[in-house]
Amino acid sequence: MAKTALILTLLTGILPAFHPNVRVDHENRPSHACFHASIALGPAGPGCQPVYVAFQDDSLVGIVTVRSDVLFQKSTDRGATWLAQDLLIKRGADFACYPDVTVDRDGNVYIVYTERVPGGSNGHFYCVSSTDGGETWSSPAQVDDNVSPVSAGWARVAADTAGSLFCAWNDKRTGRQRIWSSVSTDRGSTWRDNVRVDDDTVPSDCFHADVFVQPGTNHYLAVSSNPYWVRPGYINKDAAFTRSRDCGLTFEPCLALDTFSGYCGQPHVVADEDHVICDYTGSVGGNQNSTEARTWFRSGDSWGPPVMVTPIDTSHSSYLNGGKLAIDPSGTVHTALMFTSILSYDYDIWYTASADHGLTWSERERVNDVTSGTQSDPDIAADDNGYAYVVWQDQRNSRNEIWFGTNANVGILASGLARPERFRLDARPSLFSSALTIRLSGPLPASGTRLRVFDATGSMVREFENPGPALAWDGRDGLGRQCPPGVYIIRLESAGRTVTSGKVLKVE
Description:
The chain is mainly β and about 500 residues long. About 0% of the residues lie in helices and about 50% in strands. The strands form nine sheets. Strands 6, 7, 8, 9, 10, 11, 12 and 13 form an eight-stranded antiparallel sheet that branches. Strands 18, 19, 20, 21 and 22 form a five-stranded antiparallel sheet that branches. Strands 23, 24, 25, 26 and 27 form a five-stranded antiparallel sheet that branches.
């Protein structure tokens, strides 16, 4: 059977703006500063999804760090308020640093972090867990299987649908920084023998691992900055992707994602059942960087071309510490970027989203509401309703603090303006020939709602008035004729708002 791809444009209605920012940490001692925040959301329950943040607190003498600790915060009202006191997860002997937080399907919370031994950069990686939403925590379990501490970078962790944990990091056990991984099948209590993730043979270091578990497959996905030979005697870094199809026992050969001629680093990865989306930031010449994204399509087992996440002019640049990714249940991808003026080097946090699996991105929106100081190193999560939650380190008060912003329905008391819940639509399956199921959700009125199907020229081919929560489109126009293969757009109009969506590939 011949197959013709139907690439269907996916757009969203205008998302609510980000609300006034809220400070997360309570480290007000004059000799302390906070860094490297990580954010995760718990499963949805009767109320709001809980928001968890882990971050690093440094005690300072002048510009010298004396000790780093790992701290924890929690919000149960979409970030409007946080715990009255930061909860200490690990006090560093010298440096407990670079935390990452994740949540499994049962709501258990996990934090992995690096702990360096006194007097240097050598250390181990540890995991702690909480079964009660962060009220109490387990004893640390060592993740790496190094007998003696080695030069250690940072670790990232993700949970699969069975509750197992997949962790990857960079360490120097072989004499160079390589990407290593381990898996825990008992909720972080013990960890398997480590497995090397990268397949690099270049005499240089690998950095910046990021991980994700692809839903529906439990494929373990990893990206990192890996070295490659540009020419004899000159080594550069690219964004590399690899995957394990056997829950972390073995990994496929690494694939270079980017096409930058200069340095490329700090890639990130998310996925739904049918797509893998990666982004990364690299040099486009001079002092300017750009953030790009690429998408793997399960249908066809192929990667799409690199696309720019946000347009930039010659006076602005993306920054390597941005580009963090999140994905919501509808498949919309969210990212938090660091964006700067090359002239002033004023860093801000910006948000953009893609509703077509990374092929196109919305116009960027600034997250931080105060532009004094430097805002940097963001992390992002997305809830079941498609709202974004962003944390970052912020110098608005002339010291590093952890701040938070969201475009969810929070901050209503501060602004006095209630924001209506969005409605949305979802079209499945992603590959169809004769029937497509379209599901609608949100506060749809009983009348005055229209769902329309348009072809690539913008001509309407089918209209449904006041559809229910689910309907089937049989691929025919309003006169009952089968529509030919091509590009189609599905648009929902209700209450003066419009959502354009669709995630389908049509075959003949």
